[in-house]
Specification:
Elements (H helix, E strand, L loop, with lengths): L2 H14 L6 E2 L1 H14 L5 H22 L7 E2 H4 L1 H4 L5 H14 L7 E3 H11 L3 H10 L7 E3 H10 L9 H7 L4
Antiparallel strand pairs: 1-2, 3-4
Helix pairs in contact: 1-10, 2-3, 2-7, 3-6, 6-9, 7-8, 8-10
């Protein structure tokens, strides 16, 4: 597995471990969903419900596939399996990615403006320099907007162990040199 993939998975584990106890639990995903939905200024109830369902679906896929000791929570060692075998999670990650990207596009024009992107990423727990580097990596247009498909695709490729030089690396390490 590439070092970049390990760095990405470590970063996202710490973001999803909302209470910082070293385990992913359903409460972490509910809290994260609530934060992200609250940050979705202007999004309709349908988009917010889809985002909450995306978090729940991702959690359910993780716990049903990775909880090897059946304690109802996922430790870091268990979580790394989603990078080792990402195809097992394509459906749940795809639903999550599409819902998050759609939440960033409340007017449904296919574009996500930087302020809302920043609010959503901040709700997930990323820092402003990481957020700006990711947005810039995704190629904003002259009006400082990225496309919904670009963001969704970057989320979907995040857990790929064979990938490097991707948007997720920018979150883990900042802007490329």
């Amino acid at each position: 597995m590439r070092t970049e993939a390990v760095d990405r998975i470590t970063l996202i584990f710490t973001r999803f471990d909302v209470d910082g106890d070293g385990y992913l639990e359903s409460e972490d995903f509910e809290t994260m969903a609530d934060r992200v939905v609250a940050a979705a200024a202007g999004s309709d109830d349908e988009a917010k419900a889809a985002m909450a369902a995306g978090f729940r679906g991702f959690w359910n896929a993780l716990v049903s596939n990775l909880d090897t000791d059946h304690d109802g929570r996922i430790d870091f060692a268990e979580y790394t399996a989603c990078v080792i075998d990402p195809e097992r999670f394509d459906g749940a990650i795809g639903e999550f990615a599409d819902a998050l990207a759609a939440l960033g596009d409340p007017d449904r024009d296919g574009l996500i403006e930087r302020p809302l992107f920043t609010a959503l990423q901040t709700a997930i727990g990323f820092e402003r320099p990481q957020i700006d580097a990711l947005f810039d990596f995704l190629g904003p247009d002259g009006a400082d907007r990225i496309t919904v498909p670009a963001w969704s695709a970057s989320i979907k490729e995040y857990n790929r162990p064979d990938k490097a030089g991707i948007a997720g690396d920018v979150l883990a390490h900042g802007a490329p040199a």
